[in-house]
Amino acid sequence: MKVENDAAREPIPKSHEIEYSETKSDEGEKTKEKVQQIKKILAEDSVNINKLQEFAISPGGFVTNEIRQEAWPKMVGIDLESIPPKPDEETLHGHRDYNQVVLDVNRSLKRFPPGLRERRPYFLTKQNKNKSQMLKNLAYHMYEICCLYIKIGQRSNSCGTVRKIPQLIKRKETKEMAKWKSKNMDENIRLGLQDQLVDLIMRVLVRHEELHYYQGYHDICVTFLLVVGEDVAFALVDKLSMNHLRDFMDADMDRTKHILNYMYPLIGRVNPNLRDFMESIAFNITGWNPW
Fold first, then answer.
1. Taking the CB of residue 85, how many other CB atoms lie within 10 A of it?
2. What Rg do the C-alpha atoms of the chain give, in angstroms?
3. Beta-strand (E) ranges in the chain?
4. Which residue blocks in 159-216 are alpha helix, DSSP H?
5. How many other C-beta atoms are found inside a 10 Å radius of the C-beta of residue 228?
6. Cα separation of 249 and 213, whole Å?
7. What is the mean pLDDT of each run of 10 residues along the chain (291 residues)?
């Protein structure tokens, strides 16, 4: 089973990286100062992880993907020189959770950069091919009729316009084809990213047989994939899955339900009235799962 089709994987253009824009001069200066402070920390022989964590949870986080690519591995504590190689396709696709992962990834269009939407190429549909050929034939027939009128001396004021129709049709098709190529390129990139996302997830699950996939895990993985690429993203997610995300990856939801019991006290600290209302209607904590 493949992710929609076997489109060739495309490299992720830098234009797809999300950067924070400087809308005001004062904010721009603060952002520049923040970037300089983060880079200074990253340049130290002994990186201050606590300081990086403070910047990570501050507004705007690490500001640019360039900084994230350097900061994330150091925060998580991974060695970029010892990332395990990817298993073969048969091993990845033979895992018990593979089909569910593919279904979730195929539904994750909104998580990919703007412009990578699924669209059917204009000139690949049989109907549009027929319409295009009909327009060509009509244009040339009109042109031939106009030439015949000229030869017999029955000139028409519209002959000049009619004479240009074949060129106009050709020019229109050239523009449409350029638009189609752009859309098709975005489509190939998106499909390539989806393939990488599936492989990234399966690499973690195959390496740790005790881990079980849960819906929403792919949303975490795609964030790392878009910033650092598949191999580094795998190393990051692999480490997080065995630590921060471990309780959510059991075969059952017992530990997840236990963690959800903390939701009421947390809500009560922020909005006691909301907590009291939810308790009064006996809101089941398992209702938090989709959120």
1. 7
2. 28
3. none
4. 159-163, 165-207
5. 20
6. 6
7. 46 42 64 93 93 93 94 93 94 95 86 52 40 55 56 50 52 54 65 92 97 92 94 96 94 86 89 89 68 55
pLDDT of 176 reads 54
Please give the share of the chain, as a percent, with pLDDT higher than 70.
Answer: 64
Could you report how far apart the first and last alpha carbons of the chain are, in Å? 29
Give the angle subtended at the CA of 173 by the CAs of 171 and 174, to the nearest 5°: 65
- The predicted model scores a pTM of 0.64
Name the helix (H) or strand (E) containing 132. Answer: helix 126-151
Q: Please answer whether residues 250 and 212 qualify as being in contact, where contact means their C-beta atoms are separated by less than 8 angstroms.
A: yes
| CB of 38 closer than 8 Å to CB of 67 | yes
Domain ranges of the chain: 14-87, 252-288
Domain spanning 14-87: CATH 1.10.8.1310: yes
- Write the CB contacts of 127 (distance below 8 Å, at least 6 apart in sequence): none
Three-state DSSP state, 181: helix
**In whole angstroms, what is the distance from residue 132 CA to residue 287 CA?**
53
Kindly write down the DSSP assignment for every residue of 43-71, as one continuous string: HSSS--HHHHHHHHTSTTTTSSHHHHHHH
